[in-house]
UniProtKB/TrEMBL annotation:
CDD domains: ACT_TH. PROSITE patterns: BH4_AAA_HYDROXYL_1 (PS00367), BH4_AAA_HYDROXYL_2 (PS51410). It comes from Cardiocondyla obscurior. Residues 480-507 form a coiled coil. Its cofactor is Fe(2+). It is found in: Cell projection, Axon. NCBIfam families: Tyr_3_monoox (TIGR01269). Belongs to the biopterin-dependent aromatic amino acid hydroxylase family. Residues 159-505 form the Biopterin-dependent aromatic amino acid hydroxylase family profile domain. One of its GO terms (cellular component) is perikaryon. InterPro entries: ACT-like_dom_sf, ArAA_hydroxylase, ArAA_hydroxylase_Fe/CU_BS, ArAA_hydroxylase_sf, Aro-AA_hydroxylase_C_sf, Aromatic-AA_hydroxylase_C, Tyr_3_mOase, Tyrosine_3-monooxygenase-like. One of its GO terms (biological process) is dopamine biosynthetic process from tyrosine. This is Biopterin-dependent aromatic amino acid hydroxylase family profile domain-containing protein. PANTHER family: AROMATIC AMINO ACID HYDROXYLASE, TYROSINE 3-MONOOXYGENASE.
């Protein structure tokens, strides 16, 4: 639990302080999860370096590691915790032979540290004899004092503090329960009409004020609350109607069969109607009945990490504001028309919902570089994906199904179609000024899931995670006890499935 708390402290220390907007040098015609992920990586690196350098100058110690700085900050903010017993691991790099190890271990005991494990290996660094891993239990304050003392030893070339378990302090904090998504609302584009002169609503004070009101409703939302209803204006409903009727004309010919099936069901249940914008709560209830997905309101385009992490819990963070009336067929950032018409139908399809959740699960604890790759895969699948249906190619990407211009372009001979391969798609450059020149075509959702699973297995994350739908939590599979509990559950499920098959066979041959 210490490492998880430290990772969360790390997130707070190195959090993005500014929105990703025109003031930060991003004058693209539309905002994308992909570029936001790249910007997030850059800002986190710059912020982290600044914080670390400041802490090292303050302590007059250039050797301070990130883990030590986080630990020191935790002690400073919670003085009562300085005597809490801390599990930790130190890597000691010996200049001399193994003979000096005894003196070092005695020093640890003098600082009231309980040594639980010692392991040595030959050093790969020229001029050094050995590296020693020492696991210890001691108070946090004593641990910091010990490290400073050891750094002054002539027998050592260096000391490195590690975390105590598989969740490293360096690993990003990630939500463990759906309620933790209350902390995953960092925006990369915030109130864009106020900042971007090219935004359709920049010169419309009434529209900008309306956006702020709806955004504040989203910021106030907490896990477990009913989703607040938005009393949409006549103008907003008219904008919806224009886009809805356009999509209605294009769906039969260009949308995949899964999208068409759910779209029709939404019409039959009178959730999708041409004259009114659906409320998120009624759509959320529909999704929950069909695939277990639910919605929560978002104030704008979230950081890539925050947005993807919500998918792990089968939760989609959706905006509630509406694009400007003067630009009904294009919006520079997500709005509720894009979310509702583009994303909602396929989130009610079991296979697609599973694919979306697996992208979310893969993002938990992933490095910044891997978040960029996952965002790119999401962009070329969930947002702009195509799939095969017999000899034809159909659209399933939300960005295509809610934007008729790019939909027709994507299915024309003016662009290139490539087979979906996560290892290649993850590195594809994204076009943010115009329509995409390249689109990726999946054989099917099942095929896309299988390829994605194989690719995820190559990621650097040193642990696996599993979503427990009964508790709405994510479990890190890093202990024998957890694995045994999961295997027991799977055995019970297999017993039920086997019994069902046997009973069907008995009826068939009776």
């Amino acid at each position: 639990m210490m490492a998880v708390a430290a990772a969360q402290k790390n997130r707070e220390m190195f959090a993005i302080k500014k929105s990703y907007s025109i003031e930060n040098g991003y004058p693209a015609r539309r905002r994308s999860l992909v570029d936001d992920a790249r910007f997030e990586t850059l800002v986190v690196k710059q912020t982290k370096q600044s914080v670390l350098e400041e802490a090292r100058q303050r302590a007059n110690d250039a050797g301070l590691t990130e883990e030590e700085i986080v630990l020191a900050k935790t002690i400073a903010e919670s003085p009562d915790s300085e005597q809490s017993v801390q599990k930790a691991a130190l890597v000691l790099r010996l200049r001399e032979g193994i003979g000096s190890l005894g003196r070092i271990l005695k020093t640890i005991e003098n600082f009231k540290g309980a040594i639980t494990h010692v392991e040595t290996r030959p050093s790969k660094k020229e001029g050094l004899q050995f590296e020693v891993l020492v696991k210890i239990d001691m108070s946090r304050q004593s641990l910091l004092q010990l490290i400073r003392n050891l750094r002054q030893s002539a027998a050592l070339d260096g000391v490195t503090l590690l975390a105590d378990n598989s969740v490293s302090i360096k690993d990003p904090w990630f939500p463990r329960h759906a309620a933790d998504l209350d902390n995953c609302n960092h925006l990369m584009t915030k109130y864009e009409p106020d900042l971007d002169m090219n935004h359709p609503g920049f010169a419309d004070k009434e529209y900008r004020a309306r956006r702020k009101v709806i955004a504040e409703i989203a910021f106030a939302y907490k896990y477990g609350d009913p989703i607040p209803s938005i009393p949409y204006t006549e103008t907003e409903n008219e904008t919806w109607s224009r886009v809805f009727n356009t999509v209605l004309d294009l769906v039969p010919k260009h949308a995949c069969v899964e999208y068409q099936r759910v779209f029709k069901k939404l019409q039959e249940e009178r959730i999708f109607e041409p004259h009114r914008i659906p409320q998120l709560q009624e759509v959320s209830d529909f999704l929950k009945r069909n695939t277990g997905f639910t919605l929560r309101p978002a104030a704008g385009l979230l950081t890539a990490r925050d947005f993807l992490s919500s998918l792990a819990f089968r939760i989609f963070q959706s905006t509630q504001y509406v694009r400007h009336v003067n630009s009904p067929y294009h919006t520079p950032e997500p709005d509720c028309i894009h979310e509702l018409l583009g994303h909602m139908p396929l989130l009610a399809d079991p296979s697609f919902a599973q694919f979306s959740q697996e992208i979310g699960l893969a993002s938990l604890g992933a490095s910044d570089e891997e978040i960029e790759k996952l965002s790119t895969i999401y962009w070329f699948t969930v947002e702009f994906g195509l799939c095969k249906e017999g000899p034809e190619v159909k659209a399933y990407g939300a960005g295509l199904l809610s934007a008729y211009g790019e939909l027709l372009h994507a299915l024309s001979d003016k662009c290139e179609h490539r087979a979906f391969d996560p290892s290649i798609t993850a590195l594809q450059k994204y076009q943010d000024q115009d329509y995409q020149p390249i689109y990726y075509v999946a054989e099917s959702f099942e095929d896309a899931k299988e390829k994605f699973r194989r690719w995820v297995a190559t990621m650097s994350r040193p642990f696996e995670v599993r979503f427990n739908p009964h508790t709405q939590s994510v479990e890190v599979l890093d202990s024998v006890d957890r694995m045994e509990g999961l295997i027991s559950q799977l055995n019970t499920e297999m017993t039920h499935l086997t019994n069902a098959v046997n009973k069907m066979k008995a009826r068939q041959f009776a």
